[in-house]
Amino acid sequence: AKQAADLFKSYLPVVDRPDYDALRDGQLTPAQFREVFGSVKSASGQNSEEALYQADTDGSGSVDFKEFAFWYYCGGFSEDFCLSEDEKKLRVFARALNLNAEEVDRYDRRFKKHDIDGNGSIDFEEFTNLITELTKVPAGQKLDAKRAQALWREADLDGNGQVDFKEFVVFYKKHFENTAGCPFECYYTSIRYVKPAFADYDYY
């Protein structure tokens, strides 16, 4: 509600009166409301006149805060004001892949952790570190070079030598979430060193 309140008050004239409360007493004129509308991008596809008609529920010719807040949140504007530009892009991406916002945020945190230089993509060295962590390669062992290259070719869908966020999510979902009960790390679990039963015996 704070975003709607701040936006509403920012388009009202200053009233120097002790008993004046902008959210209680303030009214946006049609011209002021059109200015507000022009500053936001509607998810509903409305034009300014349609939006004004919808917002002015009592037909008074002006829009009070209660009317404005209802229109603001029902009209699809809250995301534009609550989120940063990067967060908005993530939401668009989430909808494109039929993911919820929580899932995309989780993938984003994982991706950024390994995007060491912060350039928005993961190179082969960063990718190797990522896979080493995700597959829980035992201490003292390295990710098999041929397997690393094979996974890299699979992850780098466009072959440009970088794995961007979308490529990362597709790859991650395939290998680390859709695992039918056996995570990808089983490969490395199976090759962990096992001490031979006869190792403690001295035959010489």
Observed structural traits:
disordered C terminus, two-stranded antiparallel ribbon, Recoverin, domain 1, 12 helices, two-stranded antiparallel sheet, about 200 residues, 2 domains, mainly alpha
Commentary on this structure:
The chain has 204 residues and is mainly α. It has 2 domains: 75 residues, Recoverin, domain 1 (Orthogonal Bundle), CATH 1.10.238.10; 108 residues, Recoverin, domain 1 (Orthogonal Bundle). Helix content is 53%, strand content 4%. Helix 3 packs across helix 4 and helix 8 crosses helix 11. This is EF-hand domain-containing protein. One of its GO terms (molecular function) is calcium ion binding. InterPro entries: EF-hand-dom_pair, EF_Hand_1_Ca_BS, EF_hand_dom. Keywords: Calcium, Metal-binding, Repeat.
Q: How much β-strand is present in the residues?
A: under 5%
> How many domain modules?
2
Strands side by side in the biggest sheet = 1-2
Level-2 CATH architecture of the largest domain:
Orthogonal Bundle
Low-confidence stretches: 187-204
* Rg calc: 28 Å
Main β-sheet description? 2 strands, antiparallel
| Approximate helicity band | 40-55%
List how many beta strands DSSP finds.
Answer: 4
Span between N and C termini? 81 Å
Structural class: mainly alpha
Shape call: elongated
Overall pLDDT confidence: 78
According to CATH, the homologous superfamily of the largest domain is EF-hand
Output the CATH topology of the largest domain: Recoverin, domain 1
Order of helices and strands: HHEHHEHHHHEHHEHH
For the record, the CATH class of the largest domain is Mainly Alpha
Number of helical elements:
12
Pfam families: EF-hand_7 (PF13499), EF-hand_8 (PF13833)
Protein name: EF-hand domain-containing protein
Keywords: Calcium, Metal-binding, Repeat
Organism: Alexandrium andersonii
